[in-house]
Amino acid sequence: xxxxxxxxxxxxxxxxxxxxxxxxxxxxxxxxxxxxxxxxxxxxxxxxxxxxxxxxxxxxxxxxxxxxxxxxxxxxxxxxxxxxxxxxxxxxxxxxxxxxxxxxxxxxxxxxxxxxxxxxxxxxxxxxxxxxxxxxxxxxxxxxxxxxxxxxxxxxxxxxxxxxxxxxxxxxxxxxxxxxxxxxxxxxxxxxxxxxxxxxxxxxxxxxxxxxxxxxxxxxxxxxxxxxxxxxxxxxxxxxxxxxxxxxxxxxxxxxxxxxxx
Length: 262
Prior knowledge:
This protein is of the alpha/beta class. It has a single domain, classed as P-loop containing nucleotide triphosphate hydrolases (Rossmann fold). 38% of the residues lie in helices and 18% in strands. A hairpin with a 2-residue loop joins strand 3 and strand 4. Helix 1 packs across helix 10 (238-252) and helix 3 packs across helix 5. The chain starts with a strand and ends in a 10-residue tail after the last helix. Residues 109-113 and 254-262 have low confidence and may be disordered.
């Protein structure tokens, strides 16, 4: 299963990506978690002890030059747009409780797309992970779908847009849906986060008509307390863990045949 997660900044994309990665891993699945948000926090949320020590792929200049034929920052350089990337996940992913994590780094933007060396490598790597790997892939993206293309949408089992009970969050979700549909992605679902009651659930559902609601994650002050204490959110909030298990079961469906352990 390949899952991409997007939404407005601060709504809880990284939290959902971390909880889903843990849930799939507990079910016995091999998981690759991809931090494709320039504001990279997935390693810390997963509990990696020294997230600052992870060098994003986009900053590995020697690797980028080796694979694309051009060094980042070299103007007018010719580069290979289909570089070799199949060995990168095994060589550069870090392991956290059975989950392999890759931090992608920033893709520079241009008027019609990025043709910089680091952008070419990252795009090829994302395509490889989505189209060629057998593991569950969970991608934590920024508020958009820049890492996806028409060629990779067929591999995405679900684009999950995380929202909170607020107008701006829902407006962002609608824009992301439009962008996703423009490149042919139709498997789009909503997860509501920071929900404090039935009125919040109804607000989200009523304002996103026609969109699949995969589930809700409750507002839990224990999540913030765990973050302030630099502790894992998984043990801090059994409530949210249980809610994400329900989202997981909806994603895999009854035909998935995957049973959670523990």
